[in-house]
Amino acid sequence: MLPEPIRLILPNQITLVVTPQSTADIVSARFLLKAGRLLETPGQMGLVNLLSAVLTKGTTHRSSLQIAEAVEYCGGSLSTECGADFFILSLKSISADFAHLLHLAAELLKEPSFPETEVELERNILLHGIRSKQEYPFTLAFDQLTAHLYGDHPYGFPSSGTIESVSALRRSDLEEFHRTYFRPDNLVISIAGRIEVEDCLKLVEEAFGDWDVPGVPLTFPEFVTPKPEPQHLYLDKGRNQAIVIVGYLTIAIEDPAYVALKLLSSYLGNGMSSRLFTELREKQGLAYEVSAVFPTRLHPALFATYLGTAPQNKTIALEGLQREVDRLGEVPLTEAELHTAKSKLLGQYALGKQTNGQLAQLFGWYEILGLGVEFDQQFSDQIKALTPTDLQAVAMQYLHSPSSSIVGPAPEPSMAE
Q: By the 8 A CB rule, do 375 and 366 touch?
C-alpha cells in the first residue's frame, strides 16, 4: 500500500507535497517550476539548458566549489534538469542531512549568481553538444519533424538550441529569465521519505518562508495551436542507416483522450512484445530499433512511431509504420490484446513508484501539471476502464493525416515527388 501524499499551500503560495515513507532512511525532493523550454523565444533557444547548467555554479554566498563540497560532505546528491515545460532541481540525502541540503536548494533557487566564467564554460559545453548531435540521425529526423509540425511554437525548437542562438546568450538573459519565472507562486516542492509532515512543513518554511511573491503578476505567453499540413520530409545524411519517423500532432495532458493515447502508444511500441516490434522487426526484419513515443505535455503533444533500418528499406518501413497506426482506427484491439497492453502499462507504472525519488518526482509532476496528486489513482482507473471501442474512436479522431521524417541516403526520385 503506497503512502498517501499530503498537499499543503504555504503563505507565500509555494505548493508543498509530502509523502511520508519510512522504509528507508532516505529523503528525496523535487523542486519544480513552470520554467521550461516552452518559455524560450526564437532568439533565445537553449537559454533554459544553459540556466540549468549554471544554476548550481554559484550563489551570492557560495562558489561552485563550496556548493559541491556542501553536497559531498552530506554524501547526498543534487542536480538540475530542464524539460519542454518545466525546470527541476532534485536532491537526495539521509534524513539527518536533509535540512542542510534543503537550505542549499533554497539558496540556489532564490539567489544564483550566474558567474560569468561559469556561463562561458557551460555555453562552450552546450555548443559542443549541439555540434555533436549533428552526427545522430535520430536527432536530425526528430528535429526536422517537430519543426514542421509545430512551426513557431517552442515545442518545435531544437531542444539544445542552435549554434547561433546559444552563442548570442548572455548572463543578463539568465538573470532576466530567473527573475521572471523563479518565484514562490510558480514552485511546487515534492518531498518523499522518512520525514513527518509537520517536521517537513517546518523545514520548508524555514528555508523558503522569506521568499516573497513579486508585486508583478505571474503570466505566461499565449500560443496558437499549430495546424500543420501533412508533409513527407527527407534529409540526405549518412549512408549506413535510415531513420524513419511518422508523427501526429495530438492533444495536451488535460484532454480526456490522453490516457487512451498513452495506452495506444504502449501497445504499439513498448517492449519486445509490442505490435511494432513483432510485426516490423520480428516478422519482417525491417528494424534495428523500433518504438513509439507520446510525451506528456502542457500543449498538444507529438504521437510518433519510429524505426531505424537499412537505407534500402526506408520506403517499406515508412509504409509499415503508417499501416500499423492506421490499423488502430480500422480494426479494434481484441480483448486479449487490450488486456496485455493494460497489464504491461499498469505494471510498469507501478514499478515506477518504488523509490522515494520516484514518488517525489511523480507527485510533484502531477501537481505542477495542474492535475493534482489525485491523478495517480485516476490514471490507473481510467486505463482499466478503456474498451476496444474507446481506443478505436480515439485513434480515428487523432491518428490520421501524418507527417513523416526520414534521415538517410537521398530518396529515390519517386519518393521526392
A: yes
Instruction: Encode pLDDT of 162-190 as tens digits.
Output: 999 999 999 999 999 999 999 999 999 99
Same fold, 6-208 and 232-416: yes
Give tens-digit pLDDT for 263-277.
999 999 999 999 999
Of the candidates 391, 404, 416, 124, which has an alpha carbon nearest to the alpha carbon of residue 267? Answer: 391
Query: Which grid coordinates are listed for 320?
Result: 509499415
C-alpha span between 202 and 198 (Å, rounded)? 6
The CATH number that domain 6-208 falls under is 3.30.830.10
Strand order in the sheet with 77-82: 6-9, 15-20, 187-193, 26-33, 87-94, 77-82
d(CA 16, CA 14): 6
Q: Output the CATH code of domain 232-416.
A: 3.30.830.10
Q: Note whether 350 and 394 are within 8 A (CB).
A: no
| Domain edges within the chain | 6-208, 232-416
